[in-house]
């Protein structure tokens, strides 16, 4: 069957669709309505760039997000799985009108998958039900349809919504992912109205346990200088991961204030009638404590990520660069060359090794 956990086999694929054509995102349909996989390309520099093991870096990156968002069960696809998808598309072409639109779509899918290599790594994830992103919602709002911004605002405002988005921000900071918000000291938004929000399309919600909740997809900034985890050295001071230290709590609160303001700006004001305004009804879409809830989420997200990373000990799961970052954040100390959980404040650590 088609599943994120199972290897993709041609025999399990009933159809292949171009899900988002301009981004070459595919949808695989299986034998039952629940068997649907989204296949997405990620830019990895491979042997033509400075980082030769980007596919593996991508795996670590995706795993970090899963520490706070279990719905981000995303896995890198093997070359064998790609060949199985190509074979399925080739099998389907004769069933279509030769030269017709469907036939052309399968041909384009085969071309996209065949061009995979060092520069492109494909990943698979379950299809997100009732997926809504802020970019599309804003476009619809501009056309008079406010259903998308209302749904996103409600998902964020509901109990746990802004907190989960804050957890996603915490992992973005650790991954140095600038393809959602700019968390730097000198931020730049997508336009003059936004302080830090850079990619509205990566602010999204989907159905999770029958409730719309934020989703932490698109976690990998392919041009980030901090994506390489092979080097056993602490990151420079401009690495966003340092935001997660206890000493940067105030800075996190300031960033969350900017993020809340940007979300409010992008969502747009609610249109209140004269009577409601006279009664003091707010035209805000998010609650007044949005920034505080985001900051609380960043705190809990940092703790969840720390717990997950410290639970791993093998070099395969915790490479030198990842170990160095855990130590740089004060989450661990080196003991005979291996990272061990740091003792609580005020308690002496065991003699560190190198």
What features would you describe in this structure?
- The protein has 354 residues and is an alpha+beta fold.
- It has two domains: 117 residues, no CATH class; 180 residues, no CATH class.
- It is built from ten helices and ten strands.
- The strands form three sheets. Strands 1-2-3-5-4 form a five-stranded antiparallel beta sheet, with helices on both faces.
- Strand 2 and strand 3 form a beta hairpin.
- Helix 2 runs antiparallel to helix 3, helix 6 crosses helix 9 and helix 7 crosses helix 9.
- The longest helix is centred in the last third of the chain and has 21 residues.
- It is globular and about 65 Å long.
- The C terminus is likely disordered.
Could you outline the blueprint of secondary structure elements for this entry?
Blueprint: E1 15-20, E2 25-29, E3 36-43, H1 54-66, E4 75-76, H2 79-92, H3 101-114, E5 120-126, E6 132-133, H4 134-142, H5 147-157, H6 161-175, E7 204-208, E8 211-214, H7 249-267, H8 274-278, H9 290-310, H10 320-328, E9 332-335, E10 338-341
Antiparallel strand pairs: 1-2, 2-3, 3-5, 4-5, 6-7, 7-8, 9-10
Helix pairs in contact: 2-3, 4-5, 5-6, 6-9, 7-9
């Amino acid at each position: 069957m088609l599943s994120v956990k199972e290897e993709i086999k041609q025999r399990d694929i009933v159809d292949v669709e171009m899900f988002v054509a301009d981004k070459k995102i595919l949808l695989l349909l299986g034998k039952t309505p629940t068997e649907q996989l989204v296949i997405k390309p990620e830019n990895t520099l491979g042997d033509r760039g400075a980082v030769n093991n980007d596919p593996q870096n991508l795996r670590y990156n995706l795993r970090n997000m899963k520490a706070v968002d279990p719905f981000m069960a995303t896995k890198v696809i093997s070359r064998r799985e790609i060949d199985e998808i190509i074979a399925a598309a080739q099998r389907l072409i004769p069933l279509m009108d030769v030269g017709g639109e469907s036939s052309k779509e399968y041909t384009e899918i085969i071309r996209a998958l065949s061009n995979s290599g060092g520069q492109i790594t494909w990943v698979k994830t379950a299809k997100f039900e009732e997926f809504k992103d802020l970019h599309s919602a804003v476009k619809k709002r501009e056309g008079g349809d406010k259903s998308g911004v209302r749904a996103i605002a409600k998902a964020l405002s509901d109990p746990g919504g802004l907190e989960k988005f804050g957890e996603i921000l915490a992992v973005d900071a650790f991954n140095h992912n600038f393809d959602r918000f700019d968390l730097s000291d000198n931020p730049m938004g997508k336009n003059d109205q936004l302080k830090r929000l850079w990619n509205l399309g990566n602010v999204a919600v989907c159905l999770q346990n029958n409730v719309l909740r934020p989703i932490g997809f698109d976690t990998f900034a392919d041009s980030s200088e901090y994506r390489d985890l092979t080097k056993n050295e602490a990151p420079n001071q401009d690495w966003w991961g340092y935001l997660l230290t206890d000493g940067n709590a105030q800075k996190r609160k300031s960033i969350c204030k900017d993020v809340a303001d940007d979300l409010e700006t992008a969502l747009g004001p609610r249109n209140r009638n004269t009577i409601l305004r006279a009664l003091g009804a707010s035209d805000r879409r998010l609650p007044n404590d949005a920034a505080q809830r985001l900051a609380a989420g960043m705190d809990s997200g940092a703790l969840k990520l720390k717990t997950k990373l410290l639970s791993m000990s093998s070099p395969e799961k915790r490479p030198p660069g990842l170990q160095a970052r855990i130590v740089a954040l004060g989450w661990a100390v080196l003991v005979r060359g291996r990272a061990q959980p740091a003792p609580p404040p005020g308690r002496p650590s065991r003699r560190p090794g190198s």
